[in-house]
Amino acid sequence: MPDWATPAFTGLKDSNWSNYGIPYEIGLYNFAASQHEHQIEKLCTVLGTTLAGVVSHEDRIAVNYLCSRPDVDTHHIGCVGLSGGGARAALLQATHPYMQATVVVAMMASYAEMLHRDVTRHTWLFFPKGWSRFGDWPDLAACRAPSPLMVQYNLDDELFAREAMQAAHLRLSQHYAAAGCVDAYQGEFYAGPHKFDLAMQESAFKWLAIRLKGVGD
Q1: Where residue 19 falls among pLDDT bands split at 50, 70, 90?
Q2: pTM of the full predicted structure?
Q3: 102 DSSP 8-state letter
Q4: Rounded-to-integer distance, Cα 150 and Cα 121, Å
Q5: Which long-range contacts (CB under 8 A, 24 or more apart) does 132-140 make?
Q6: With the CA atoms of 39, 42, 46 and 47 taken in that order, what torsion angle do they form, in degrees rounded to the nearest 10?
Q7: Which of 40, 93, 183, 212 could form a disulfide with 76 if both were Cys (CB 3.0 to 4.6 A apart)?
Q8: 82/190 Cα distance (integer angstroms)
Q9: What is the C-alpha separation between 152 and 17, in angstroms, rounded?
Q10: Is the pLDDT of residue 1 over 50?
């Protein structure tokens, strides 16, 4: 942990994370990590790229390695991600043609409805520099429609307003309707906070199994 992190975190008026059931050490780590992410994004900007671009590139390398293995069926590859992993799943869905089905969990919202409340809570992965001049986050996730996409939303997610999630769901539905394959997108809304619980996992893995079965056969 860097020397500046502890006093900076401790000095915050709202730094008593224990009031929210979050152990001090976890709160300290998350605070330091959030500050480091700003530094990484600055470095990426100087290098002419973005954190989202670098992470997406690394994930594509991982998929390419997976596809190079003789024990992997390259016609049946999917991915699933929660929260920050959901951002990575959305980026991978958008940028890798081998993604045959993708599940994004608790990481889908429309920028306009987030602007005045939720932007500061999120990773730079969710805001690729310059992207908002061309489209919204759901547009990025749906850019390979009709490639199958499931998004799971938590109605009481503390990181997203309901209207931001509902707007994203509507936009995704419109993209898949325009692509002539409404059924290739499935949005699911669950009660509760930011999570990927057993019921959500069962639904996601069942959907992936159905979508990937027979692809490329």
Answers
A1: low
A2: 0.85
A3: E
A4: 24
A5: 136/110, 136/111, 136/112, 136/168, 136/171, 137/90, 137/108, 137/109, 137/110, 137/111, 137/168, 138/108, 138/110, 138/168, 138/171, 138/172, 138/175, 139/171, 139/175, 140/90, 140/91, 140/94
A6: 70
A7: 212
A8: 14
A9: 27
A10: no
